[in-house]
Design brief:
Oligomer: single chain
Number of helices: 2
Number of strands: 0
Largest sheet: none
Distance between the termini: 51 Å
């Protein structure tokens, strides 16, 4: 069973993910149909960043996953037997 602290952290992560998903969805799907001079555009970055930021995040994720796999592989290799 999860403790109260674990549940609080889990709910926080789910809430943050939901907020981020909603923000990005509005930014990418809704804003192109809203006039450029509308006040809602002041709450969002320029549209170029809607492609750049996820690309950079994906590259960083791949870097961390590759580093993790490399470290685990390096630590688990067996020494060669020498006769």
């Amino acid at each position: 069973m999860a403790t109260g602290a674990d549940q609080a952290v889990g709910f926080g992560l789910v809430g943050f993910s939901l907020l981020l998903f909603t923000y990005y969805t509005i930014w990418v799907i809704v804003l192109p149909f809203v006039d450029s001079d509308h006040v809602i555009h002041s709450y969002f970055l320029p549209r170029e960043y809607s492609v750049i930021l996820p690309g950079v995040a994906a590259l960083i994720l791949l870097l961390f996953v590759g580093t993790f796999i490399g470290v685990v592989t390096w630590k688990n290799r067996k020494p060669k037997k020498s006769d």
